[in-house]
Amino acid sequence: xxxxxxxxxxxxxxxxxxxxxxxxxxxxxxxxxxxxxxxxxxxxxxxxxxxxxxxxxxxxxxxxxxxxxxxxxxxxxxxxxxxxxxxxxxxxxxxxxxxxxxxxxxxxxxxxxxxxxxxxxxxxxxxxxxxxxxxxxxxxxxxxxxxxxxxxxxxxxxxxxxxxxxxxxxxxxxxxxx
Length: 178
Prior knowledge:
mainly beta, Porin, 13-stranded antiparallel sheet, globular, LOR
């Protein structure tokens, strides 16, 4: 529900096809591929098929990564860490672009040192950044978080980890069910 308008329609940041009216269980896997190279996949727990995958270039000085829709092979968003920023700002762009005109939103830590993570999300249209559009609060220890509409207490999404190790000792992967 969009609190500002009172509407019950989902608030689509990337596109309405990524909004669901019911909880969706995804399994996230992180794979380490060499020195400082890692990739992530998101699998639909009900169907068992990989639906999203990240890819990063081998030379990755700006910490760039792109999230792909596996079925179509199309890039959904591209992510890069903003350099020389004390608050650990990340920028998210539509598709495979890193062009400023394609900026969707930015993510910023609320404090430089945090024991419990709190991130503010500002949509590209929110140029003043007086009030954030979304807030994410969570902990790395429990691998869980909640997403709030703006700076309110209205929860619009949440993730809770169901952590397990799978595979043999040579091919262990971490699975996080969200």
